[in-house]
Each structure stands twice: as C-alpha cells, then as structure tokens.
Specification:
By secondary structure, the chain is α/β, with parallel strands linked by helices. Helices cover 32% and strands 24% of the residues. The chain has 14 helices and 14 strands. It has helices spanning 7-12, 16-26, 35-52, 109-114, 116-119, 139-148, 185-190, 244-261, 285-293, 296-301, 328-337, 354-359, 393-412, 415-421; strands at 57-75, 80-81, 83-85, 97-103, 123-127, 153-157, 180-183, 199-221, 228-234, 271-277, 302-308, 317-320, 343-345, 364-369. Strand 1 and strand 2 (80-81) form a beta hairpin. The longest helix has 20 residues, at 393-412. It is elongated. The chain starts with 6 loop residues before the first helix and ends in a 5-residue tail after the last helix. The structure holds zinc ion (ZN). Zinc ion is lined by residues 234, 246-247, 280, 309-310, 352. Residues 234, 246-247, 280, 309-310, 352 line the site of zinc ion.
Length: 426
C-alpha cells in the first residue's frame, strides 16, 4: 500500500520533530529512576496522546532500582582519575578495593582465555567498542567473562579522548557481580602493564538498591482487524549526556510518524500500537516485562515490531532483522519504492527492545543509523558527547519518512505476506 503522496512532504515540513527532540534533550540523560526520566515519561505521555489522538495506557514496571552515591578511582601514584560507575554495579567494601589491573585489550573471549590463570583476584581492564558493527563484543559479555574468571573489579575504557564511557553492567537484581566503572582512554594508558608488573588501582563504589517503578506507555490506534504493528522507542538513557542520539532521536521520530499517519490508521488492515519503554538501558527490562505479559493470542496479533533506537547520528539507516530473514525482501522492496536507502543485517542483536519481541517469536527489527560506519557520530553513544548537536534535522526527517513508509506497508500487507515474516532463518 502506498501512503498518500503528501505524507513525506508533511513529515519534512513538520518542525515539531526538532522541537520534541530538543525538549527530550532538555530533560537531561533520563537515567531510569531519576527526576529527569520521570519528567520525560510524563512529557512523552502527553505528546503521544496529542500525536495519536488516543489516550494512553500506562503499564507499571517494577525493576531493581539502583543509584550510585560515590565512585572513586585512585591510581598507584595516589592520583584520582575520573570514573563513572556502570549501571547496577555492585558496591565495593566501604574502604574500597585495591588490586592489580590486568589489561585484556579489547576483551575478546580469546584474550580472556589466554590470561585465564591471571585474572582471579585482579581488576580486569577492557575497551568499549563501536556498538553498531558486525562482530562487536558487548560490554555485558566482557563483564560476565571477568566475573566468571574471578576478577574482583571491572574497568572499561571509552573511545573518546579525554572522556568517560558509561553503560550497564547488565547485572540483574540479586545476581552476583563485581564493582564496575567506565574510564577515559588516558586513564587506561596509565594502567598499562610495565616491566615492573601489573599496575595497581583502588576503586570505591557506594550504591543504594531498592525496588523501583517506571512504566510502559501504550497508545492503541485500531485498524480493521485486531492485528497490530508495534512501533516502539525507549525514553530512558544515561546521566553523563543528553542521550540525544540514543534515544531522543527514536522517540521524536516515533511521535512525528504517528502525528502524520494517525488519521489514516482506521482504514488500514492492522492497527498501530505505539509503545514507549523505559529501563531499556537496564538490560532491556521495560520491554522484557511487556513481552512476558503477552499471552500467545496477543503475541500472534502482533504482526511486527518496528523499534526505533538511535535513528540519527549517521547517514545510512540499517534494519537489524533479528533472524527474521523473510522480513528482509518486504523491507527492501518498501524502502526502494519510496526511494529510501536501507540495508538489512540479520543476526539477532540483543542491543535494544526489539530483541525481546524477537525472543517471544514476534517478527521484529531495530532501525539504527550509522551501522558499520566507524566515522558516524553514533560512535559517541554512551559518552559525554551524545548531545543534540550530533543530530541533524534532515536525519530525523529521513528516519521518520522511512518509518512511516514501512509502518504503512506493514499494516496493510496481505496476511499471506505477514505470516511469512514469522519464519526464522536458521
Ligand atoms: Zn538505545
């Protein structure tokens, strides 16, 4: 199905997309559990209702809340180095922990294996990698390898000169863990091994944990059948930046798409469910709870999840198709029909909320900018440089136009096409 021809122009002329993007950045990084996140969720609830013309349902999400009260890293010469605790890091003993630092470079499984005998009792140091590239080893995997090998602490060095890096340890409530911090690359250089042996460092992390509440916001626009396509984006982020690319870009894009297509949806075969998640940066908790709440019947009614996460900050858009290979011809055909460039990358990547839909058997993809492009601005995600000036208005518009085209086509695809999407490639 083709969209009315003026839809692309209306998206291009919709100045609100930049206003809402800036408003989300104005709230700050929106770390789950902070006032910044609460205010942003309230704003998104109100803007979502305006855009969709329907009231929202708020599903309560309880999760293992966590807050860092103190984080300190002291080098062997006594100097303090800047550091940032990873989300849900465990605390150190009150007087801190002091140990030798074993530098495992990038922190590949091979590096962990080669040093297996030397890791226990030491602090592991690894590097943060470009997240949107084939073969990336996720921080959470490195953290778990360090934990399993008996490390007593975990340091991850950022990619940006002079800047820290953040992220989540991925540790769930009640799980074992080790104290974990992001540091700047210069600090990592000062922790290098010398002829005299491994460098020493002292870490102090003080945290507070308690059950916390956030929500998932749903806006249901009915189509002709009870099937839906879920358009999703996560609102939360980190507290060292504006979480502008990741993911004010996705939220603002989703709002712009819904604003433009809302009047059409009642005539479409499938309806649209707009979903805003939080606690995504906490091991995808918001969407995990949502997926777990769905009955088999409800899962079957969801024809597709289109997840917008970091859709600006790079020129080209990529769909991460989560192993659903039969979705790819449909996406490419639709993008080409509208003159939009799109690439599909198939392996399931557990790097955003689409993964929880995919694990529940629901066809799902993440739209992401700058994939496999080491010079795209998305390389600054999770660093202090994830600020609004990394994003251009044409990037937001392009993401919204492509999303509108894919959403309309998915909502109107024949049942025979939609049922093929559910087949997984092996
Ligand atoms: Zn994200």
């Amino acid at each position: 199905m083709r969209l009315p021809p003026d839809i692309f122009d209306r998206i291009a002329d919709d100045g609100t997309i930049t206003e809402e993007f800036a408003a989300l950045c104005d709230f700050g990084g929106r770390l789950a559990g902070t006032e910044s996140e609460r205010l942003a969720m309230a704003y998104v609830a109100q803007r979502g209702s305006l855009a969709s013309g329907v009231p929202y349902t708020s599903l309560p999400v309880s999760y293992g809340g966590w807050r860092a009260i103190k984080a300190e890293l002291r080098l062997s010469d006594g100097a303090l180095a800047a550091c940032h605790p990873l989300v849900r890091s465990t605390p150190t003993a009150a007087d801190g922990l002091s140990a030798e630092v074993i530098d495992l470079g990038r922190g590949t499984p091979e590096e962990f294996e080669a040093h297996r005998e030397e890791i226990a009792g030491r602090i592991v140091l690894v590097r943060h990698e470009l997240m949107f590239a084939a073969g990336t080893i996720h921080r959470r995997r490195k953290y778990n390898m360090a934990l399993e090998a008996g490390a007593v602490g975990f340091l991850i060095a950022g990619p940006l000169a002079g800047a820290l890096v953040t992220g989540s340890s991925g540790r769930n409530e009640g799980d074992a863990g080790i104290p974990a911090m992001g540091i700047a690359p210069e600090t990592a250089a000062r922790l290098a091994r010398t002829a005299a042996g491994w460098a020493r460092a002292a870490m102090v992390i003080k945290t507070e944990e308690c059950e916390a509440q956030t929500s998932t916001l749903l806006f249901d626009m009915r189509g002709e059948t009870d099937e839906v396509v879920v358009l999703s984006a996560h609102v939360d982020g980190h507290d060292i930046n504006e979480s502008a690319m990741d993911n004010a870009s996705g939220v603002a894009t989703a709002l712009a798409v819904i604003r433009t297509i809302a009047p059409q949806v009642q005539g479409w075969r499938r309806g649209v469910r707009l979903a805003f998640f939080s606690a995504e940066e906490w091991a995808l908790t918001g969407s995990a709870r949502y997926a777990a709440s769905l009955s088999d019947v409800e899962k079957r009614r969801i024809a597709l999840n289109i997840n917008l996460d970091t859709v600006a900050g790079g020129e080209r858009l990529t769909a991460l198709t989560s192993g659903f290979g039969e979705l790819e011809p449909f996406l490419l055909e639709t993008a080409e029909a509208y003159g939009c460039a799109l690439r599909c990358v198939r392996p399931l990547q557990m790097n955003s909320d689409h993964a929880n839909f995919a694990l529940a058997g629901i066809p799902a993809f993440r739209l992401v900018a700058g994939y496999d492009n080491p010079s795209a601005n998305v390389r600054f995600v999770l660093t202090p440089a994830d600020l609004r000036d990394q994003v251009t208005e044409p990037e937001l518009i392009k993401a919204a136009q492509l999303t509108a085209a894919l959403l309309a086509a998915a909502c109107n695809a024949p049942s025979s096409t939609a049922s093929r999407w559910r087949n997984r490639s092996r």
